[in-house]
Amino acid sequence: MDKIQNLKGFRDFLPAEALKRQWLKNIIVRTFKKWGYDPMETPTLEPLELFVGQIGEDEKLFFKFKDNAGRDVALRYDQTVPTCRVVGQYSQSLPMPFRRYQIQPAFRAENPQKGRYREFIQCDADIFGSTSPLADAEVIALSLDIYRQIGFKFATALINDRSLLADFPYEAVVAIDKLEKIGEGGVIADMVKKGIEESAARNYLAKSKALMPSPTINQIFNYLKQSGFEESWYRFEPTLARSFSYSTGAIWEIKIPGFDSGSVLGGERFDNLVERVSGQKIPGVGFGLGFDRTLEAAIQFGLVPEIKTQSSLLVTIFNSSLTQKSLELSTKLRDLGVRTELYPDDNAKIDKQFKYANKKGIPFVAVIGEEEASKNIVKIKDMISGEQTDYPIDNLPKIAANVQKTPN
Known about the structure:
By secondary structure, this protein is an alpha+beta fold. It has 2 domains: 15-300, 2-Layer Sandwich (BirA Bifunctional Protein, domain 2); 313-403, Anticodon-binding domain (Rossmann fold, 3-Layer(aba) Sandwich). 37% of the residues lie in helices and 20% in strands. It has 14 helices and 16 strands. The chain has helices at residues 15-34, 48-51, 80-89, 133-150, 170-176, 179-193, 198-209, 215-226, 273-278, 291-300, 323-335, 350-360, 370-375, 396-403; strands at residues 38-39, 45-47, 64-66, 72-75, 98-107, 119-128, 156-161, 234-236, 250-255, 265-269, 284-290, 313-315, 340-342, 364-367, 377-382, 388-392. The protein starts with 14 loop residues before the first helix and ends in a 5-residue tail after the last helix. The strands form 3 sheets. An 8-stranded mixed sheet has the order 1-5-6-11-10-9-7-8.
């Protein structure tokens, strides 16, 4: 039998990489909480009809199939559409305006390449129940604040208003959204391919480039300025179109200057989507953050700390007769909040236990040998400096204070 490996476009994350991902997720969640957003989750599997007709031309990327009961189902394509189902379904019990964040995997039948995977984490935040530009401005400010909290010196929100494109056919909007990738000639060719006359295509492109900020955009800019963001963090981008068919008002993407893998976040107002999904007329605005691209950018700019393990301390077992003392020490230190491992083999030689700590990157090792036990002390070795310190075994708070050098 051939060795089984993970499927193309689906990834494994070993601890060193998973810890970096956890570091980023913690920052994002802290920022969501700071702005007053509550968590929400939706099922991985939804009825296919939930997504059909809502996404636009990327419906070809649905992971869809028939379940055992013969129903047409799809893996979660995005989080906005299922959330609109939830908001409509539970509208009577939710406070309005309703702020929510969601961090779960999404699935798309992409052609896997750098930065594009078939399973990936999405981080969304939305406000439902308000048509005010203040809601648009808030979620844009929140999205920028996430990158500020990660440590980027600056990120740029490119902002437009889909209402400015209201008289453009959807095919023209989708083509214009590709301007940066395929250039003006490619945009015109794409419109012509979709049935738009060349002269009309040129006119749509020219009109998009000549757009001026709407009153909504001006209000958003004022909000961002009052929120402490310098003007380098945001600008009007008339050819930004966003290809989602449900976009209705403010639209934006965030890019990191110097990071060349595309935008790291995108958002829009979608006032009709809840009604299209559930029949309930509830406006919404929000964004989806590209978790993988954001992490790649943070790594590129040296913002991610080197984290090998979450353990602060390894308690060794000197020999089987001293197992109980090592076990007691481990338990008491955990009770004091120290992230403590006990080596799980009382027959292992002490040098093997030290090698394990080194390989895993555990910063401190505790030893209670025969001599230490007789003196009622524990020896703590700093694995980075090599310094060893003896502590009275009953002075656990002092031990805890000296080994609490644990990554977030």
